[in-house]
Amino acid sequence: MPRAKPAAAANARAKRFSVNHRAGAKFEKRGLRNYFEYRDLGIRRATRGKLVAHVIRARAGKSPHGEWHLHDCDAQFVYVLKGWVRFEYDGVGELLMKAGTCFYQPPRIRHREIAHSKNLELLEVVAPADFRTYSAAQPAARKSQARR
């Protein structure tokens, strides 16, 4: 096998391989929302903060607050693994996301979670890993809100 060139070796050290198995994985109750539990998938460390990926699941006995907010990030997408969740987005309206739904939230879009099933599980990926979340005022009422 050929030996790596010094520049290639340095580049390889900058990249980290990461594996995270479900067996033995832990969900933390600390996170952005107190009605969810979060399982870190190790992507933040592997990408040195370029991305964060976690599985989010509903906490028993907790329900969403329905507070309008936005995330100051470059990209955010969510894939619904189990159950369902209903969101409302400024300029879009209410959307029901079910198992198998994948959605992209544009940066800084005002939104809120209205409700979710007891068995909700989501896969969420956000860039950068250290994004900020801000409370937001309720958008002005629109005549025709989409309901999907």
Structure, explained:
- This protein is mainly beta and about 150 residues long.
- The chain has one domain: Jelly Rolls.
- About 10% of the residues lie in helices and about 40% in strands.
- It contains 2 helices and 11 strands; from the N terminus they run αβαββββββββββ.
- The chain has helices at about 5-15, 45; strands at about 35-40, 50-60, 70, 75-80, 85-90, 95-100, 100-105, 110-115, 120-125, 130-135, 145.
- Strands 1-2-9-4-7 form a 5-stranded antiparallel beta sheet. It has a 4-stranded mixed beta sheet with strand order 8-5-6-11, with no helix packed on it.
- The relative contact order is 0.22.
- The mean pLDDT is about 85.
Task: Show the helix and strand layout.
Elements (H helix, E strand, L loop, with lengths): L5 H9 L21 E5 L2 H4 L5 E7 L10 E4 L2 E8 L1 E6 L3 E6 L3 E3 L6 E6 L4 E7 L4 E4 L10 E2 L1
Parallel strand pairs: 6-11
Antiparallel strand pairs: 1-2, 2-9, 3-10, 4-7, 4-9, 5-6, 5-8
Short descriptors:
mainly beta, Jelly Rolls, 4-stranded mixed beta sheet, 148 residues, 5-stranded antiparallel beta sheet, globular
